[in-house]
Specification:
It contains 13 helices and 6 strands. It folds into 4 domains: about 5-155; about 160-250; about 255-350, no CATH class; about 355-415. The longest helix is centred in the middle third of the chain and has 58 residues, at about 230-290. The chain is mainly alpha-helical and about 425 residues long. The strands form 3 sheets. A two-stranded antiparallel sheet has the order 1-2.
């Protein structure tokens, strides 16, 4: 029958040796882990940083748990050393010694005081107790749990510190470069919306970097495992900077292309003015040569368009590129509209002259046809041709009457040119 002690069946010599070997290996593993945690860059940074927010709270708990870890590890090591010393007394331990070893290796006779676990670390260690009686296995399980939680906090903070502040610094440097470029083309706070955006983005990046340094755990996403830094605010800032950069580059393009665009604008406006001048001259000619009352009036050049063109040139001289950009866009559209209006005016006022020219051409074409047919001496054709010619080459010309005479001349030509069928004089058969 197996001997039974306070902790159950008394272990045999081989069982004791196997347990000591296993617990010794666990001791070495825990010690290595604790030393690695002690030397972890994240722990050293947390220990020396001025923390805020959730990181301050979590680090207070974690730091207390690390202290408790070492206290429990010392209790574990002391119990293991006591068991090793007892086992080393003789090659074949007595039954009493085996009972003592069983109690040391399997019993819950290791006392840990409540002072080993500070109050603000209770979220990691559980409710406060004055003393606790634990076994080596329980000590080991507790230390492993605390270690995992502590390493999670330390590694998360270190991961955020490694990922975000340096990237924010690069983005801030790029923001300053864009800001300098924007200033060179007049995109400044209070003068252009993009300047205000740059100012706000610079302040936000400074504030964001400060928060990532003082409260890194606020930027940690634990799910999905193993977790990752939350870079969403950094990425959003990057997108905003890219939008501002595109707007600044558009203003830069305006600066580089402004002289060419203004030259083209002046040319379009000048052509519109010349066309309107031509239309007014043509109207005077039409009124003097054509008997008509429906010739449309021709307006003068657009004063507002010329004023805005002068304003655009002033913006270019004073390097106000951010103001020149939208003005040029508007002016280019309005200048094309003005040129189209001028051309329409010219077409409208010269329409009677075009009609007279068409009638003159038609009359000459029919006269040439009459000459080819050998009917140039026909009295009726000569009379009607002379009537049409007098109307078309007189001033002012009555277009309606002239058109009627030309049509009469055409009709006469057609009738003379049409062969007549002889009259059938035969009576009924």
């Amino acid at each position: 029958m197996a001997v039974v002690g306070a902790s159950g069946p008394v272990m045999g010599r081989e069982d004791v040796d196997r347990a000591l070997a296993r617990l010794g290996a666990e001791h070495e593993a825990v010690e290595s882990s604790l030393l690695a945690l002690q030397d972890h860059s994240g722990r050293r940074l947390l220990e020396g940083a001025e923390l805020t927010g959730v990181t301050k709270q979590r680090w207070a708990e974690t730091d207390a748990a690390i202290t408790a870890l070492w206290t429990h590890f010392e209790a574990y090591a002391d119990a293991l050393n006591t068991a090793r010393q007892l086992r080393a007394r003789r090659r074949w331990p007595t039954q009493t010694e085996l009972s003592q070893l069983t109690e040391l290796l399997q019993g819950d006779g290791i006392t840990v005081t409540g002072a080993a676990v500070p109050d603000h670390a209770r979220s990691l260690t559980g409710p406060a107790k004055l003393t606790e009686q634990l076994s080596l296995e329980q000590l080991l399980a507790r230390m492993n749990g605390w270690y995992d939680r502590a390493m999670e906090t330390v590694a998360a903070a270190d991961s955020v510190w490694s990922a975000l502040p340096a990237r924010i610094d690069l983005l801030a440097a790029e923001t300053q470069r864009v800001r300098s470029l924007a200033g060179s083309v007049g995109v400044r706070p209070g003068a252009h919306p993009a300047g205000d955006e740059l100012e706000a983005l610079t302040a936000e990046l400074t504030e964001l970097r400060g928060r990532t340094v003082s409260d890194p755990l606020a930027f940690w996403l634990p799910r999905p495992a193993p977790g990752r830094p939350d870079t969403s605010q950094y990425e959003q800032a990057g997108r905003r900077l890219e939008e501002i950069r595109r707007e600044v580059e558009a203003v830069l393009h305006v600066r580089d292309d402004a002289e060419h665009r203004l030259k083209r604008l002046r040319d379009v406006v000048s052509r519109a003015d010349r066309t309107l001048t031509e239309a007014r001259s043509a109207r005077v000619e039409v009124l003097s040569k054509i008997l008509a009352s429906d010739v449309p009036a021709v307006s003068g050049p657009s004063g507002a368009l010329h004023e805005q063109l002068d304003c655009a040139e002033e913006f270019m001289r004073t390097a106000q590129w951010h103001r020149l950009s939208p003005l040029l866009d508007s002016l280019e559209e309005r200048a094309e509209d003005e040129l189209l209006r001028a051309r329409d005016s010219l077409t409208a006022v010269t329409a009677p002259l075009a009609v007279r020219a068409e009638l003159r051409g038609r009359l000459d074409a029919y006269r040439a046809k009459v000459a080819r047919l050998g009917m140039a001496e026909d009295p009726l054709l000569i009379e009607r041709y002379d009537q049409a010619r007098r109307l078309l080459w007189s001033a002012p010309c009555d277009l309606a009457a002239a058109e009627r005479t030309v049509q009469r001349y055409q009709q006469a030509v057609s009738e003379i040119n049409t062969p007549r069928t002889p009259t059938d004089r035969r009576g009924p058969g």
